[in-house]
Amino acid sequence: MNEIRLAESDRDIERCFPVMVQLRPHLEDAAFVATIRRQVAGGFTLAFLERDGHVQAVAGFRVIDNLVSGRILYVDDLVTDAAARSRGYGKALFDWLMARARAEGCRTLELDSGVQRFDAHRFYLVNRMHIASYHFRLKI
Prior knowledge:
Elements: E1 2-6, H1 10-23, H2 29-41, E2 45-51, E3 54-66, E4 70-80, H3 89-103, E5 108-111, H4 118-126
Parallel strand pairs: 4-5
Antiparallel strand pairs: 1-2, 2-3, 3-4
């Protein structure tokens, strides 16, 4: 049975690392808990889908308000373990995020996705998302 929970304890956060690092390979295991704790202080939430005692998918998100969209649930990270893809875990976590957005009074669920992530884009489009903008970045 799938169980989706918030990663609130250090142990739960640590358990999410092997999946999260597949999306964010620059992360370091030794600093992961402290990094998540810093982000939580700014409104970040880490959720995970567990099946049979193993983390299968992870999502990092925050509820924010902005002028362009109003109240939104912004998904920073959404990843399914590479060994467990195409089994419905990502869809289950995405649906949970949508329900959370509704419960939080959000108007939309939004995310950015790297231009090279074609499989992720296909997943988002199948789940009724549309490409609404470009994201620009300038390193400082």
